[in-house]
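Predict structure. Chain length: 325.
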Amino acid sequence: MIIQKKTRKTLMVFAGRVNADLSREVAQLLGTEPVPTQVFDFANGEIFVRYEESVRGCDAFVIQSHAAPINEAIMEQLIMVDALKRASAKRITVVLPFYGYARQDKKHRGREPISARLMADLFKTAGAHRLMAVDLHTAQIQGFFNGPVDHLMALPRLSAYVAEKYGTDRLALVSPDAGRIKVAEQWSRRLGGAPLAFIHKTRDVTRPNESVANRVVGDVVGRLCILVDDMIDTGGTIVKAADALLEAGAADVVIAATHAIFSDPAVDRLTACGAREVIVTNTLPIAVDKRFDKLTVLSIGPLIAEAIREVFEDGSVTSLFDGEA
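Prediction complete.
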């Protein structure tokens, strides 16, 4: 006797407690809602998760932004993945609008961890089959996870906004350090081949969140400089870079970054600096007290939703970025 059954795929979105607004937006764009989930903390801080409907055989997408307190956000997502594995979800994709510990992707000195690799191992052990992240700190992190990794880029969203608002200005694309010059090159291609520059920067590895902008390399005189980076944490690096550009003769500076971590005193620094506008996305939640007049927040929700749809339908995520992803 032969038993035949037609395969049915079911997409289900699961939202952690961090950046729930983004998760709901993504689910809505996909024509669904986040699965009702019971999540609470025990008195000692332990996290409990239970899904309130069956997830057996589903294609699960677990969305959680790793915002402060970052370790709690990561642990909650790991527990969500474990619950799905034990409830017989068919495929589990961990969606990381912001990948925590991404800056610890290599050893600078002896006896240091590579915490970005540890993160990937934790999700694999928990039961994840696939990772989806937005603008990893370095592309090599894709190789840390033993499975498919979709590296989404906010560049199309950010550059389209800049092109519409500042496309008629004399632009220069500026990387805050030599390591991200390739990203600036991608920006340049999308903005009509604007010239490139970068900030020669030195950093003391023994002092986190501190750097020195030594000099500007490239011609920025009289140009509107688009200063691009993947994240703004305390704002020290990006503000020093903006000040260096203005001192080098730039007409104005616009800062564009994907992840608005905004640890203190970032808001004070960005508000006081000479940049005309600070453009970020909502990969991380931005509290009301972290918003300021020249801040523009673009939604990354449509990009994540489209990538999830491509994965679910066995399509091409790379096609969303003209083959560059």
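Summary: The mean pLDDT is 94.
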